[in-house]
Amino acid sequence: xxxRGAKGLTIASxxxxxxxxxxxxxxxxxxxxxTKSLDSDTSDVRIRQRKLLESIISLLPAEKSVFPIxxxxxxxxxxxxxxxxxxxxxxxxxxxxxxxxxxxxxxLLVISFTFDGARLFDLESVRRIISxxxxxEKNVAVFNGGNFREVCSTAMLSVTKIVDAYLGEIAQYDxxxxxxxxxxxxxx
Length: 188
Prior knowledge:
Elements: H1 8-22, H2 24-28, H3 44-58, H4 69-81, H5 86-98, H6 105-111, H7 123-143, H8 154-187
Helix pairs in contact: 4-5, 4-6, 5-7, 6-8
């Protein structure tokens, strides 16, 4: 498609459709159902899916804003779950940070779910995404002749509100998890 001059949006559309069909239970489903057969990291199915995902990521068009952020977050979650290569995860993190002003709390929480219904809380990945976004904003401020400490863009304000809400959500979960753990320990 690239060699025939297809636009980035057309290629993105094809990739989204292909990924959703190839990783039906991984990209769309956030409940944890349908993935029980993938318990082992070395299962043939999981290895094939990992290779396929890494191939798809390598085909992504150069334009970073052609994919919806929720799709990219689902792909990152899938990459983490399948234990894809670091370069695959870094590419997805870079793409997410480039358009982070469009993120929702739910998008960030998608990264934090495993496929068995538990929470993953890959805070390191979220931290790298936010750091990439802040670096981008610093570069924009400097390029526009301002001082980053004095300039706070609309995008930055939006992302800070979302990150604050995200941290509130995961703190709530952590607090509930501690209470459940204490109840279990007291019964034992």
